[in-house]
Design goal:
With about 500 residues, this protein is of the alpha+beta class. The chain has 2 domains: about 250 residues, Aminohydrolase, N-terminal nucleophile (Ntn) domain (Glutamine Phosphoribosylpyrophosphate, subunit 1, domain 1); about 160 residues, Rossmann fold (3-Layer(aba) Sandwich), CATH 3.40.50.2020. The chain is built from 17 helices and 22 strands. Strand 19, helix 13 and strand 20 form a beta-alpha-beta unit. Helix 4 packs across helix 5, helix 9 crosses helix 10 and helix 11 packs parallel to helix 13. The longest helix is centred in the middle third of the chain and has 19 residues. The radius of gyration is 23 Å and the shape is globular.
Length: about 500
């Protein structure tokens, strides 16, 4: 899962890109990058870590240009080093800079195909570099002229769809021609489109709507499933629905990844989480437990916990205090890092815990390591009983579409049943959201279908069998072992093939 932003502005866009990336930092903390275009060159800087640490004022002075792309990396393909940080560029045709949020299937096979059949060296393990080369070669084969026609962009995107299966929202700048964004054929990964009036009409593409609101952009629409949007050099907007497959956005975006103040595909993340809490409340009521206080495991589940508490008529309090300088444990690169992070991320608020029966509400239970440590922490703080509720159903299947959970053995729900999980995490009672209730909580604004693959194994892209799952698991474990977080930061002001 990553965050991506593209801005077609009037003045220097680097400061808007920086602000947008800070707002989307929750989508990726591993690495970040910005590429701008100043009319002659691509100017790129990438680094490991958070936006505020990588992009100092001195760095940003060298990233001039009225068009730019920003990216926040959460590694799902590749080892997580600087070599795999986005955006990527290549020099022909025109010069193209590209970044994406998502994950493509058969990435390594596509990489080998490009090497053996197209004589293209893919110099990273990042899947967007594969998309970049396929898009660029498709565009070049059409002999585009000095002015790029929208139809040639549609044809190039269509070829990407034909060759690449997976989940992705792509933003690309074509030097001297304009900016294009397109979303995978099922719309699994999110993408929004907006505008604002300054010296000229300015446009933005972003992973979440909250970015638009921060920067004063008006939302035009979501990027549709299988849709491409091209803004030409005269700032004219061209849109084309290229394929018409079933729209199935990722439901886990609403459970965990997205900010609560975002609206994606017409669905308010905040309202969806409220409904998740109301659905969970029905189970809690039926259990007829003696609960004194309800608390969120901060921060993602806060809205869900509040709604649950309101529905059952029990006070909701802050039993756990979060250290805001510790990252999100779910998206950290390794289990060891996650375990250490949990220790420092949360501390118990003893006055709200001691001598009470506490119901903790979290967004999900993945490996169980976080849940067990939190339950133990609350019990050691003096709770008489500790109950646990998950806003998500049992996670059982690998996500092949951009979430770092490709190995089934990582899920506690594949090893233990409901009662065994309750015992393993040390809870006195355990509640899981049902899949039907989760869908009902999120389903409105005309969206009827979702990607539920991590819960039920039904992959919208199809053609996923046991061999594919096993290979994805092996590949991801190899990527993890190859992580090199200490690699150097490389900057450049010239288009290269690729720019690293």
């Amino acid at each position: 899962m990553c965050g991506v932003i593209g801005i077609y502005g009037s003045g220097n866009v680097v400061y808007d890109l920086y602000d947008a990336m800070v707002v989307l930092q929750h989508r990726g903390q591993d690495a970040c990058g910005i590429t701008t275009y100043d009319g002659e060159h691509f100017n790129t800087h990438k680094g490991m870590g958070l936006t505020r640490d990588v992009f100092t004022p001195e760095v940003m002075k060298n990233l001039g240009g009225s068009i730019g792309i920003g990216h926040l990396r959460y590694p799902t393909v590749g080892g997580g080093g600087i070599r795999d940080a986005q955006p990527f560029t290549r020099s022909a045709p025109y010069g193209i800079a590209m970044a994406h949020n998502g994950n493509i299937m058969h990435h390594k096979e596509m990489k080998e195909h490009l090497k053996d059949n197209e004589l293209v060296m893919v110099n990273s393990d990042c899947d967007v570099e594969v998309i970049l080369h396929i898009f660029a070669k498709a565009l070049r084969r059409q002999n585009p002229g000095k002015v790029l026609e929208p139809q040639k962009v549609w044809d190039a995107v269509k070829e990407v769809y034909e060759k690449i299966s997976g989940a992705y929202t792509v933003v690309a700048h074509i030097a001297g021609q304009g900016m294009v964004a397109f979303r995978d054929q099922h719309g699994i990964r999110p993408g929004v489109f907006g505008k604002r009036e300054r010296l000229n009409t300015e446009y933005i593409f972003a992973s979440e709507s909250v970015t638009l609101e921060l920067l004063g952009f008006e939302k035009i629409s979501d990027i549709g499933a299988g849709e491409a949007i091209f803004i030409d050099n005269d700032r004219k907007v061209h849109r084309q629905k290229i394929t018409n497959k079933k729209h199935t956005p990722c439901i886990f975006e609403y459970v965990y990844f997205a900010r609560p103040d975002s609206v994606m595909d017409g669905i308010s993340v905040y309202k969806a989480r409220l409904k998740m809490g109301e659905k969970l409340a029905e189970q809690v009521k039926k259990a007829n437990l003696d609960i004194d206080v309800i608390s969120a495991v901060p921060d993602t589940s806060r809205v869900t916990a509040t709604a649950l508490a309101d529905k059952v008529g029990i006070k909701c309090r802050e039993c756990l205090i979060k250290n805001r300088y510790i990252g999100r444990t779910f998206i950290m690169a390794g289990q060891g890092i996650r375990q250490k992070s949990i220790k420092y991320k949360l501390t118990p608020n003893i006055p709200e815990i001691a001598g009470k029966n506490v119901l903790l509400v979290d967004d999900s239970i993945v490996r169980g390591n976080t849940s067990k440590k939190i339950v133990d922490m609350v019990r050691q703080a003096g709770a008489k009983k500790v109950y646990f509720a998950s806003a998500a159903p049992m996670l059982k299947f690998p996500c092949l579409y951009g979430i770092d959970l490709p190995t089934r053995k990582e899920y506690i729900a594949n090893e233990l049943d409901h009662d065994e999980i309750c015992k393993a995490i040390g809870a006195d009672a355990l509640f899981y959201q049902t899949l039907d209730d989760l869908v009902d909580a999120v389903k409105y604004a005309g969206v009827e279908n979702f990607c539920l693959a991590c819960f039920n194994g039904d992959y919208p892209t199809g053609n996923i069998d046991e061999d594919v799952l096993k290979k994805a698991e092996v590949d991801r474990e190899c990527d993890r072992r190859g992580t090199n977080p200490s690699a150097e930061v490389i900057t450049s002001d010239m288009p290269q093939v690729p720019l690293l």
